[in-house]
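User: Can you predict the 3D structure for this chain?
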Amino acid sequence: MLTVHAAPLVLPVGAAGVPGGAVAVDGDRVAAVGPYDEVLAAHPSARVRQWPGVLTPGLVQRDGLPLLTRCYHPDPREADELGERPLTGAEFDRLAGGMDEPRRAGSVRRGLQRMLRHGTTHVAGVLGEPAVRTAAGRAGLTVLPSAGAAAGEPSLDPFAGGRTLAASVYGPLLAGGRADLAVFDVRDEAELRAAGGTACVATVLGGRLVYRRR
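Assistant: Here is the predicted structure, written as structure tokens:
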């Protein structure tokens, strides 16, 4: 089904922002990017999704490899014991020694789900471990060559380290391109960079709505 995603501001990257903009999606491809009235007039039968804030291309998670292989993402049922944030460094090492494969696979799946909640559609890194590679494939994320992870602890926020929007996306929103989108409840790019990926309210992966904040 053809869908029009509309937002107060569309930032295609590589072109001027579009106030009151929209992106038409047909299957897994972008059909059009432009002002809402023009996009809807060209696709009058489309389903319309109205979003708050800013719509951008999907983001690249450059810390993908360490987040999936050197972090433990606690199950919500473990929150009282382990908290909710990813465990890294010595905390991860303490858990890793006694972790069986099902528990480790669960952590990988939760890590991928949390990436989607931060607007991530692409993961950078050589995902050599079969379980990690399979989970990423099932989630639908595009895997890219390593692009240089941020220094320090890995972060779920693709804007970590002060990255700009242009440096945080895989490519611009273009008609004919793959429909990987993210929507953030902010007013503009400056507010987006300040808030980071936690402001994400929706992620569209290959035309599929895979995350929506409720």
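The chain has two domains: 3-58+169-212, 60-144. The chain has a mean pLDDT of 91.
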